[in-house]
Specification:
Largest sheet: 6 strands, antiparallel, barrel
Number of strands: 12
Organism: Desulfobacca acetoxidans
Number of domains: 2
CATH architecture of the largest domain: Beta Barrel
CATH superfamily of the largest domain: Rod shape-determining protein MreC, domain 1
Strand content: 25-35%
Number of helices: 2
Helix content: 25-40%
CATH class of the largest domain: Mainly Beta
Function: Involved in formation and maintenance of cell shape.
Radius of gyration: 46 Å
Keywords: Cell shape, Coiled coil
Strand order of the largest sheet: 1-2-5-4-3-12
Pfam families: MreC
Order of helices and strands: HHEEEEEEEEEEEE
Family: Belongs to the MreC family.
């Protein structure tokens, strides 16, 4: 079958080759003949637009191909720039966090100098998820000297006191917890009352007679009585006063000076406790 196919193809190929040779000879022989020049002109006129179109298409394909590779390279470059930008943003966040932490620690260090009391630093590692209490967990415990009843301070004022202590952790009851209570005074005129936790982010100054002079904005301090909190440390500011309540006492709301919802670093005051009722 292959022999027959080769035989059948051989004849047309021979004819085509012969015609090509004859045309080449004629072209060389009659290159300057008017008839050949007219035929050549006609052929050029007919083929030139097609050749020009093919050149345009080829150029367009070349440009498209070049643009494609340019866009691929540009996409890779953009991806790399985006990655570097994300790295720089992450470094910026870390830098800002380190800067803020340094400022907080600087403030605590200044507070430590002002106290003139033995203190140790600690970090808040967790908040008590219970809805019935306001407590936090700090990363020091009995091994580090964080005993029951010790006062805990932070930037802005008193945080609370330790009510449970473990080998390397301790639980701190915040001053806004409903079970928290301590003797307090108004700085301006030394009016005394009991600072009682009310839940949320507020306390009340209890047992203050209606004729006592207490105003919104007054600063509430620890009196030092009871031996729980160091005298003169800030509980917070009076945010509400109501003398129209029934009974002999006015209703006074105190907002804590420390931001108890965003605690990170605290100081534990390592002094003897005169009274402690967890």
């Amino acid at each position: 079958m292959n022999v027959r196919l080769r035989t059948r193809l051989r004849t047309p190929l021979v004819i085509a080759a012969t015609l090509f040779f004859v045309l080449a000879v004629l072209s060389l022989s009659f290159k300057h003949a008017p008839v050949m020049q007219a035929a050549e002109g006609l052929i050029i006129s007919l083929t030139a637009p097609a050749i020009n179109g093919l050149n345009w298409v080829g150029g367009s394909l070349k440009r498209v191909w070049s643009d494609y590779f340019y866009l691929v390279g540009l996409r890779k470059e953009n991806a790399e720039l985006k990655r570097r930008l994300e790295e720089y943003q992450l470094k910026e966040v870390r830098y800002q966090e380190a800067l803020l932490e340094a400022r907080r620690l600087e403030i605590l260090l200044e507070l430590k100098k002002q106290l003139a009391l033995p203190v140790t630093g600690a970090r808040v590692v967790a908040y008590d998820p219970s809805q019935w209490s306001r407590c936090v967990i700090i990363d020091i415990g009995k091994k580090e000297g964080a005993d029951l009843g010790l006062a805990v301070l932070a930037q802005g004022g008193i945080v609370g006191r330790i009510i449970e202590s473990y080998p390397h952790y301790a639980k701190v009851m915040l001053v806004v917890d409903r079970n928290s209570g301590a003797d307090a005074i108004i700085q301006r005129n030394r009016v005394r009352g009991i600072l009682q936790g009310k839940g949320g982010n507020r306390c009340s100054l209890e047992y203050v007679p209606k004729n006592a002079d207490v105003e919104v904005g007054d600063l509430g301090l620890a009196s030092g009585l009871g031996g729980i909190y160091p005298a003169g440390q800030v509980f917070g500011r009076v945010s509400q006063v109501d003398k129209k309540t029934g009974g002999p006492f006015q209703e006074i709301i105190v907002t804590p000076g420390a931001n108890l919802s965003a605690l990170e670093e605290v100081l534990v005051v390592k002094t003897a406790k005169l009274a402690f009722n967890p």
